[in-house]
């Protein structure tokens, strides 16, 4: 059974700091991995998607890496801003169920960026 | 963002009563999903649909049923609500040939 873990559960940093969020998964048979952002009381927004054959993806100040063999992904946020405050979730799409996009989510890391 | 609405947004009900949550999309996406989100568990898939009248179970389907009679609507029904079904429920959609799911704003359900 695929288990997805995110550590730490919560993180508080001063504005301007670079930071890394971690995601680990137990089964390397994944189709892809996604990072989502969730604001309080809102739904999820996809930030980055990494296919299993890729090593990283970048969007603006965000960079996500994937090491499938070790079951790890990191989300790097450069020059953090108060507007980055949110909960960040990672999710893996199971390889044998990828046609239906069956994902397993981590519990998320709640990020607070202080002005 | 895909036009996804969920109704109601908040609901309080009593144990043993039936509850139906509605997800409506305007994007004509083929796939639709229902998740629940609980503290410490992330999101867990309840049921999904891969077309009109085509549905299948997810990771935590016990106690839930779904129906999809039109492309734009996906209903989640709790036949007899229990306190363990107190949660935030999210609907999501996905277009064929893509990997990105778009999420609705969620429904907070409290079962007393």
Tally of separate helices of chain B: 0
Average pLDDT across residues of chain A? Answer: 93
Query: Cα distance, first to last residue of chain B?
Result: 34 Å
Q: Give the helix/strand class of chain A.
A: mainly beta
Largest sheet of chain A: 6 strands, mixed
Low-confidence parts of chain B: none
| Number of E strands of chain A | 11
Helix percentage range of chain B? under 10%
What is the arithmetic mean of pLDDT of chain B? 94
Rounded Rg of chain A: 14 Å
Q: Given the helix and strand composition of chain B, which structural class is it?
A: mainly beta
Task: Give an overview in words.
The complex is a heterodimer of chains A (115) and B (112). Chain A is an all-beta fold. Chain A has strands spanning 4-7, 10-14, 19-25, 30-38, 44-51, 56-59, 62-67, 72-77, 86-94, 103-105, 109-114. In chain A, the strands form 2 sheets. In chain A, strands 2, 4, 5, 9, 10 and 11 form a 6-stranded mixed β-sheet that branches. Chain A has a 5-stranded antiparallel β-sheet with strand order 1-3-8-7-6, with no helix packed on it. In chain A, a hairpin with a 4-residue loop joins strand 7 and strand 8 (72-77). The radius of gyration of chain A is 14 Å and the shape is globular. Chain A starts with a strand and ends with a strand. The model of chain A has no long low-confidence stretch (mean pLDDT 93). The N and C termini of chain B lie far apart (34 Å). In chain B, strand 9 and strand 10 form a beta hairpin. Chain B has 112 residues and is mostly beta strands. Chain B is globular, with a radius of gyration of 13 Å. In chain B, the strands form 2 sheets. In chain B, strands 2, 4, 5, 6, 9, 10 and 11 form a 7-stranded mixed β-sheet that branches. Classes of the chains: A mainly beta (115), B mainly beta (112). The interface between A and B is medium-sized, with 23 and 27 residues.
């Amino acid at each position: 059974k695929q288990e997805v873990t995110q550590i730490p559960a919560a993180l508080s940093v001063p504005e301007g700091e670079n930071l890394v969020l971690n995601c680990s998964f137990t089964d390397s048979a994944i189709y892809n991995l996604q990072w989502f952002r969730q604001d309080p009381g809102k739904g999820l927004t996809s930030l980055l998607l990494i296919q299993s054959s890729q090593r990283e993806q970048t969007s603006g100040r965000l960079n996500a890496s994937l090491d499938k063999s070790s079951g790890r992904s990191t989300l790097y946020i450069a020059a953090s801003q108060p507007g980055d405050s949110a909960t960040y979730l990672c999710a893996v799409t199971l390889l044998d169920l990828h046609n239906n996009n069956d994902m397993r989510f981590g519990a998320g890391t709640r990020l607070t960026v202080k002005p | 963002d895909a036009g996804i609405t969920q109704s109601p947004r908040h609901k309080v009900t009593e144990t043993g009563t039936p509850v139906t949550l509605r997800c409506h999309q305007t994007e004509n996406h083929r796939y639709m999903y229902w998740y629940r989100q609980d503290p410490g568990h992330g999101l867990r898939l309840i049921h999904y649909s891969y077309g009109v009248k085509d549905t299948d179970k997810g990771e935590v389907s016990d106690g839930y049923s779904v129906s999809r009679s039109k492309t734009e609507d996906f209903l989640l029904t709790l036949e007899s609500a229990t306190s363990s079904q107190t949660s935030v429920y999210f609907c999501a959609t996905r277009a064929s040939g893509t990997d990105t799911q778009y999420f609705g704003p969620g429904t907070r359900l409290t079962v007393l």
